[in-house]
Amino acid sequence: MCALKTFKLGGVHPPENKHSADRPIEVFPIPKQVVIPVNQNLGAPSSPLIKKGDMVTAGQLIAKGEAFISSNVHSSVSGKVLKIDNMMDQTGYKRMAVVINVEGDEWDGSIDKSDDLKEQITLSREEIIKKIHEMGIVGLGGAAFPSHVKLMIPEGKTAEYLLINGVECEPYLTADHRLMLEKGKQILIGAKILMKGLGVDKAIIGIENNKPDAIKHITELAKEFDDIKVQALKVKYPQGGEKQLIKAAVKREVPSGKLPIEVGCVVNNVGTAFAVYEAVQKNKPLIERVVTVTGKTVKEPSNFLVRIGTPLNELIEKSGGDKEATGKVVSGGPMMGKALNSVDVPVVKGTSGVLLFKEDESVRVEMKHCIRCGRCIQVCPMGLEPVLLTQLSERGRWEEAEQEMVMDCIECGSCHYTCPSGRPLLDFLRLGKAKVGQLIRNRGKK
What we know:
- The chain has helices spanning 125-134, 147-150, 175-182, 184-198, 212-221, 242-250, 270-282, 312-318, 359-362, 375-379, 386-394, 398-403, 414-418, 425-445, and strands spanning 25-27, 33-37, 47-48, 55-56, 61-64, 73-74, 79-88, 94-102, 161-165, 203-208, 228-233, 265-269, 288-295, 302-307, 326-331, 338-339, 353-358.
- By secondary structure, it is an alpha/beta fold.
- Among the domains are: 125-282, 3-Layer(aba) Sandwich (Rossmann fold); 375-445, no CATH class.
């Protein structure tokens, strides 16, 4: 293991609040009914393959991702399809989903449900990419980008490093931490599979130094793998951002508007590496994931292995969430997560956590005039000027916002967090990115 590293530009140090770090992963009970959206990935939605009244088994393909950037969706349970309808998801909008009434727990016969560790990788590079596509694997760090697409290196580009992101820099969240402690060998085998899929011979697993047990455990396991090393990282948010992790681990800087492959890197989350292991070695689709349920109104902060489609309110109830004392529920972490307007929505592939805030934590401070202190500029890990971009977004000056590189914003919320005037900088940056993105797409259609 090497000396501690980090990215240099910007960053903040919010309280960690890792209350569930010592709670082992617990298998969550199968719900009576699941709601499985057909779009759980960045990109195009999948097309349903089943109809009302059909009987399905756990692991059965129920919606096919046919676009280039799309992902297959599988049933997480066995039972009867009640309906295929527009149902509210975590965005607050109604989108197409498959509703299944659970009957028993029958799995697709091709899935290896045993706990036996399967180390030998027999598939070719092309077969690995195909299998990851078939099994509906997406990035589990939050963006839910289809994982097979990352392995399809564009012509003229070369991958040199696979970076496995075990940083989990978001306060409160501990799902990745527990996964590294409990499924470390599987994660390493998953990393080897991804390396073969990319055609690279070097992998680095980055872990923040606030997880010394995970660093020690993965480092010990990695001694069996000459081409995988563990890099301990200083605790600084947003260390888990792709570009920040690349800068810290291999000292390369991704150019503005470009992807990590531009500097020979591909980044995957530890949860994704584990899902890849299960897909390739066990023929298991992505039908469940680890979710942290935590917050100061939660009696028993927990890490649950949850079937996709499980209602969030059931997770909250099981962990002892006090709904009366809760003022806000966030999907994800406090920095980049999104507030929910209802907990009657399902767990999806990208659900890393469910965070409950107390009433007094949920109220935004009174917004005051900008005092030109420059703190937002100092903490921006992308070297942007959030105060300027916010002013441009407020005034609808989208072309100028584009020129000032608003699309480089990674929406980490560091500027918003540090602003002494309580200005909603992240809200305006997201608005600016959405509007500029629309401009760029419209420009491409002409």
